[in-house]
Specification:
The chain is built from 13 helices and nine strands. With 351 residues, it is an alpha+beta fold.
């Protein structure tokens, strides 16, 4: 089974050109499935091979996943305890009765609380650490911060997202990407900036990259427009903090973020600013989705008989093709060439 996983990972990397994060996610899911399959066999038995995986094993794994998901997330529990109605969808909410209170609950997570939780997980998964009497140092490797815009209906978001994604690919240049992330563009940095339009299983995604940091836009379930800033190196961003020098004295100046989890408070404000600058740029783009919705509503048939409605998209395409030059139709007779205009001759009287 391990050989099959390695072969699949090689296929993703070489044939599909998948990103490092995508490959890591597939590896994690496959190894989780392999761990579940091992629990169905005796403890001293060899791991199952691909030929031993049948429909019953897959169904059992799906049922196990469903039981695990019955436990709500910590934020969902807090929302329910606070009396806030919500409708979850994967890692997003498509409906919240009180957005301000829900955001306040999400902002309550502190680095101290996160440190305690991580220490608890480490003690249960790696108890040997207690033997040495030392604590773990938790650092940040990959960070994502998203801003979700919730729409009432899919019919409103779909044409708007199509307009924004089409224009963002063409309009966002290196200077704009740098400004979203709070940076100034230089000739050296310009080579590390780019934009990419990707098609995923869930839909499309626009990503603007600047070295190991980027800002992207995508939709979730046709109801949520998500703007997200991601980074694999938090020291990319700078903030005002205490800096200790080699001679022992300290000053307060603008310096790169430390990679400790205690930088999360300042990092959250920085990433939120990136999302807001990106949103402000998108808000200035032309939006024709409202006109398209109005045109579609006006051109809907209002009668029961078949007629020629030239403004409906499919009919307009047919009429345009029929009217194209050079198209011959069975009911159209070729135009006869015009004869020379007749001339009136005046006869001279006979002498």
């Amino acid at each position: 089974m391990e050989d099959a996983i390695r072969a699949f990972v090689m296929f993703l990397e070489v044939e599909r050109g998948a990103s490092r994060e995508t490959i890591r996610g597939y590896q994690s899911d496959l190894r989780q499935f392999l761990s579940f399959a091992r629990t169905l066999r005796p403890a001293d038995a060899a791991p199952p091979g691909p030929e031993e995986i049948d429909a019953m094993v897959v169904r059992g794994y799906l049922a196990w996943l469903d039981r695990r998901r019955e436990k709500k997330s910590s934020l969902a529990r807090k929302l329910a305890a606070a009396g806030i109605d919500f409708t979850p969808a994967d890692n997003a909410f498509v409906q919240l009765s009180d957005l301000e209170r829900a955001q306040a609950l999400a902002d309550r997570l502190t680095p101290d609380e996160l440190h305690r939780r991580l220490d608890r997980y480490a003690a249960s998964l790696c108890p040997v650490g207690e033997v040495f009497g030392q604590r773990y140092h938790w650092s940040l490797m990959q960070v994502e911060y998203s801003t979700d815009l919730i729409f009432r209906s899919e019919a409103t978001l779909k044409p708007l997202y199509e307009q924004l994604s089409r224009q963002a690919v063409l309009a966002v240049k290196a200077e704009q990407v740098a400004s979203f992330l709070g940076k100034k563009i230089t000739p050296q940095l310009a080579q590390e900036i780019g934009s990419r339009f990707a098609t995923r299983i869930e839909g499309t995604c626009i990503k603007h990259r600047f070295a190991k940091t980027g800002v992207k836009m995508y939709d979730k379930f046709g109801r949520v427009l998500r703007l997200e800033t991601t980074t694999n190196d938090v020291s990319f961003f700078k903030h005002h903090r205490k800096v200790e020098h080699q001679d022992g004295h300290s000053t307060r100046e603008l310096a790169p973020l430390k990679k400790t989890i205690y930088s999360l408070i300042d990092l959250r404000e920085i990433l939120l600013g990136c999302n807001h600058r990106y949103l402000e740029f998108l808000s200035a783009m032309d939006d024709t989705s409202g006109g398209e919705r109005d045109l579609a509503r006006l051109t809907e048939p209002q009668h029961n008989y078949q007629g020629t409605e030239l403004l409906r998209p499919r009919r307009a395409e047919i009429v345009a093709r029929l009217a194209a030059p050079g198209v011959q139709h069975p009911w159209r007779t070729p135009r006869q060439p015009q004869s020379a205009p007749r001339r009136v001759h005046q006869l001279a009287p006979l002498a």
